[in-house]
Amino acid sequence: MSSHTAILPRWTWIAPVLAWIVLLVAGMLPNAVMLAASGIALAGAVFAAVHHAETVAHKVGEPFGTLVLAIAVTVIEVALIVSVMLSGGPDKAGLPRDTVFAAIMIVCTGIVGVCLLFGGVRHHTQGFHVQGASAAMSVLCALSVLTLVLPNYTSSVAGPGLAPSQLAFEGVISLVLYMVFVFVQTVRHRDYFLAKPDSADVHAPPPPTRVAVFSLGLLVVALVAVVGLAKKLSPAVEQAVAQAGAPKAVVGIVIAALVLLPEGLAALRAARANQLQTSLNLALGSALASIGLTIPAVAAVSLVLGQPIELGLAPKETVLLALTLIVGVTTLGTGRTTVLQGMVHLVIFAAFLFLAIVP
């Protein structure tokens, strides 16, 4: 056994390997066995990804560690969206919009709500840097409205679509805003995003460089397996949704939730360790990456290949998005949170899920 794997817990490298084995042989298994094996392998890959993300984060420090996980998950998610777009034709024109919206709602109401609730239960009140959270929310508000709401009100092309020049503009400004945010987060105002030293975990010695590099490789392996297994499970999810009589948008929510599981678990563990700043870096960073990297990618695919795309949200989803952004700005405007804010976010998340199933 190499020195790399001797230092890492054995299960953290066995789980991704087994996930890949299941991914490769799933087509040869009976359907019921394939679903069970894929579900177990998916859970193992998710927990392994969280462990490796935390190892890398502890080595490189905040906010670089959370940025690694957010960008890694989003890049793989973008690849999945683009591949489905190319194979699905006009029927998948709304897939990028549905996926980005589901990611924003899951992150900003579900993940943030759970973190605030469990962190509040354990620590009563938790603090974070208002400057960092406010910076992230201002960029998130601008990107969300410009990419998911504004397309309904342009006149060159009837909404929810955009003219080619408008789509190119949306892609450019999304990428520019996200890159400026990353620059502010990691270089210019990095101190706004640093976790407060309230946990003993902060004082633990960082892992050796070779272990961190090995964990980074295993993180990518685990995340690719997560997305691949999610794609394998999606036909069963679609069938179950159809049999239940629920709208097709529920499929996008389930897949987005599976892909976001590693970030959600990492954020929850940080909140329970009284590192709410790290939780917010993960949550808000992944929501921003979901828009800032997905929209430019799908815009480029649409423009180059002539693939149809729809970005404007329906009225019900627009109201939910507006409510989420308003509550998010209010929650993160004081620098302190309690269980109350967590419950407010989770109620909005419950409304999002219920109205997706019962529109």
UniProtKB/TrEMBL annotation:
Record Pfam families: Na_Ca_ex (PF01699)
InterPro entries registered for this protein in UniProt: Alkaline_pH_Ca-Antiporter, NaCa_Exmemb
GO MF annotations, alphabetized: potassium:proton antiporter activity; sodium:proton antiporter activity
Topology with respect to the bilayer: Multi-pass membrane protein
Keywords: Membrane, Transmembrane, Transmembrane helix
Compartments, record wording: Membrane
Protein name listed in UniProt: Ionic transporter y4hA
